């Protein structure tokens, strides 16, 4: 192995992209109070340090910080998932235990059994500052004055800033560079607690423990390898103690600690762009030539005349060829941009466990029927996205008239309107700021390998909280909710129109009773209509004439509803079982 004296360090994308909720944090969740959490936790003995139990965190969050219990659990659960490498079966077993809890007291007792790494958790809480609103910064940047009153911002401070920092890897890098001193103070053994980022002196902390550096590895990754195309990723603490690095990182073998000043300077000097980031994938990734099903003529209101009636071919790229196989989680990306009036259907090895970014898709149908790590759907309009099981997160951001059909661990929605979500999820859907008219419905489809894929993703059908959204942010009011449950009368199951191999023949977990009754009643109406036609005693010519009338009306309905475009676009079959 060729080892460089300086190594390469970068900010890990997943904690920021999916761990930092895209809503400004509670005003009490600031540096000073987070520092107090560390001190309080250490004073609680084994229940607080080095592992922080949920019971201690709940007490801090609800009684000290005045967070709601629901929000406290969201933070804890998200950090638990991101910092514990549980197997799919362990995740499923955990969900099964929560599913069998009949009362809230039972659920609380189960929650009290879990704990998170204390130092990693305080870092997790600190990076929620990524979305903190700054009036001064807004004015300097020339942004429009916020619509909230000044007093509401001072007291509440939880409106969502503009932009999508979850996709902006540069903002993640700048955040760490700017706030490294405060983060190191949170992880230190000293209790200086200055409470101001500008006044934290990198040299004032003294020494940094190996445990603190290990915790910092939650948000910083790296490599000491220069010569291979596929870099070998190493934990931050392992890089920092390499013989060729310690003179820069400030590590002392005698004390097994780091000089705070040297360590922070080393981090800042060798932080670079994440080689597995969105921007790196766009610049250096491999272009994927997945077949597109182009819209044929007669596209209704979505097509114009001449050359403009043709679909716009989207751009798809991946970095799968440079990501080490043992480090695909959170690093392997597939980016789909500007897919317009297309149908894409895919199930492949490249897709499996990848993080997918779908950006600016318009009037399209996207079937990604492989088990996935995480998915971001941003700035899309009039698009239907059908996903294989997503073992981690889905984020729907700044979308309009988008339908998502998915089983996933967690889904969050921000800045979106007129969106429909058909879900199977063990966590409550998170509805953040800027949403309007979000329709929630139970997961309503299946395809042959689905059950096996769900098992591999650690998702069980026995726990589905699709109908219990949690609204986070200042623009939610109980008297004017921004979400509603799909009325059973408007509910239809969804058929995945591709031939695949596998044992699944029904919707995992079935449908809620009221929706199943609606489907059954509709089927009875169809059966009754078929009997009526059969018993009408029509002659052969009458049957032909009647069939022609029904087919003509059906085609009119297809065109009026836009379903004709969807059916026409299915000309290209599902692409699967290949390397791309």
SSE layout:
Blueprint (H helix, E strand, L loop, with lengths): L2 E9 L1 H7 L11 H13 L7 E3 H11 L4 H15 L4 H12 L4 H8 L3 E3 H9 L8 H6 L9 H6 L13 H19 L19 E3 H7 L3 E6 L7 E2 L1 H5 L5 H4 L1 E2 L4 E3 H11 E2 L5 H7 L1 E2 L5 E2 L20 E4 L14 E5 L4 E6 L7 E5 L5 E4 L5 E5 L2 E7 L2 E8 L2 E15 L2 E8 L5 E2 L4 E7 L7 H8 L12 E2 L11 E3 L27 H22 L5 H22 L1 H6 L6 E2 L4
Parallel strand pairs: 1-9, 13-15, 14-16, 14-26, 15-17, 16-18, 17-19, 18-20, 19-20, 20-21, 20-22, 21-23, 22-24, 23-25
Antiparallel strand pairs: 1-5, 2-3, 4-8, 5-6, 7-8, 10-12, 11-14, 12-13
Helix pairs in contact: 2-7, 2-10, 3-4, 4-7
Family: Belongs to the TBCC family.
Pfam family, one: TBCC
InterPro entries: C-CAP_CF_C-like, CAP/MinC_C, CAP_C_sf, CARP_motif, TBCC1, Tubulin-bd_cofactor_C_dom
List the main descriptive attributes of the protein structure presented here.
four-stranded mixed beta sheet; 580 residues; 17-stranded mixed beta sheet; globular
């Amino acid at each position: 192995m060729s080892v460089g004296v300086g190594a390469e360090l970068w900010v890990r994308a997943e904690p920021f992209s999916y761990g930092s909720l895209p809503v400004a944090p509670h005003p009490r969740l600031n540096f000073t109070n987070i520092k107090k959490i560390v001190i309080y936790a250490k004073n609680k003995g084994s229940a607080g340090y080095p592992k922080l139990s949920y019971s201690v965190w709940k007490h801090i969050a609800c009684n000290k910080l005045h967070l709601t219990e629901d929000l406290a659990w969201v933070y804890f659960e998200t950090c638990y998932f991101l910092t514990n490498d549980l197997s799919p079966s362990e995740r499923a077993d955990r969900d099964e235990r929560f599913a069998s809890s009949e009362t809230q007291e039972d659920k609380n007792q189960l929650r009290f059994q879990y704990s998170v790494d204390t130092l990693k958790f305080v870092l997790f809480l600190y990076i929620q500052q990524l979305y903190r609103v700054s009036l001064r910064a807004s004015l300097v940047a020339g942004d429009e004055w916020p619509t909230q009153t000044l007093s509401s911002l001072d007291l509440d401070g939880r409106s969502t800033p503009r932009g999508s920092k979850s996709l902006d890897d540069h903002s993640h890098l700048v955040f760490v560079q700017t706030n490294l001193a405060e983060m190191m103070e949170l992880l230190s053994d000293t209790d200086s607690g200055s409470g101001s980022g500008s006044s934290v002196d990198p040299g004032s902390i003294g020494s940094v423990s190996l445990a603190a550096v290990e915790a910092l590895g939650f948000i910083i990754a790296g490599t000491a390898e220069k010569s291979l195309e596929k870099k070998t990723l190493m934990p931050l603490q392992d890089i920092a103690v390499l013989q060729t690095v310690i003179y820069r990182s400030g590590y002392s073998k005698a004390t097994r600690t780091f000089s705070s000043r040297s360590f922070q300077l080393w981090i800042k000097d060798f932080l670079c762009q994440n080689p597995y980031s969105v921007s790196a994938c766009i610049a250096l990734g491999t272009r994927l030539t997945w077949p597109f099903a182009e819209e044929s003529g007669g596209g209704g209101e979505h097509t114009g005349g001449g050359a403009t009636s043709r679909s716009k071919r989207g751009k798809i790229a991946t970095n799968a060829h440079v990501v080490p196989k043992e480090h695909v989680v959170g690093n392997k990306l597939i980016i789909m941009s500007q897919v317009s009036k297309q149908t894409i259907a895919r199930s492949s090895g490249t897709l499996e466990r990848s993080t997918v970014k779908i950006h600016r898709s318009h009037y399209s149908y996207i079937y990604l029927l492989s088990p996935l790590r995480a998915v971001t759907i941003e700035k899309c309009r009039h698009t239907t996205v059908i996903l294989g099981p997503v073992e981690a997160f889905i984020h729907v951001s700044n979308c309009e008239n988008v339908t998502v059909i998915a089983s996933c661990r967690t889904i969050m929605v921000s800045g979106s309107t007129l969106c429909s979500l058909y879900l199977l999820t063990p966590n409550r859907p998170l509805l953040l700021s800027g949403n309007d008219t979000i329709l929630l419905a139970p997961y309503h489809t299946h395809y042959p390998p689905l059950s096996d894929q769900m098992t591999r993703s650690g998702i069980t059908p026995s726990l589905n909280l699709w109908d219990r959204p949690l609204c986070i942010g200042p623009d939610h009011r109980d008297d004017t909710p921004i979400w509603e449950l799909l009325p059973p009368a408007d509910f239809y199951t969804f058929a995945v129109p591709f031939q695949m191999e596998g044992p699944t023949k029904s919707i995992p977990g079935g449908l809620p009773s009221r929706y199943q009754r609606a489907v059954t009643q509709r089927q009875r109406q169809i059966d009754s209509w078929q009997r009526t036609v059969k018993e009408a005693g029509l002659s052969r010519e009458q049957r032909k004439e009647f069939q022609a009338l029904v087919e003509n009306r059906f085609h009119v309905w297809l065109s009026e509803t836009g379903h004709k475009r969807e059916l026409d676009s299915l000309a290209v079959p599902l692409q699967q079982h290949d390397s791309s």
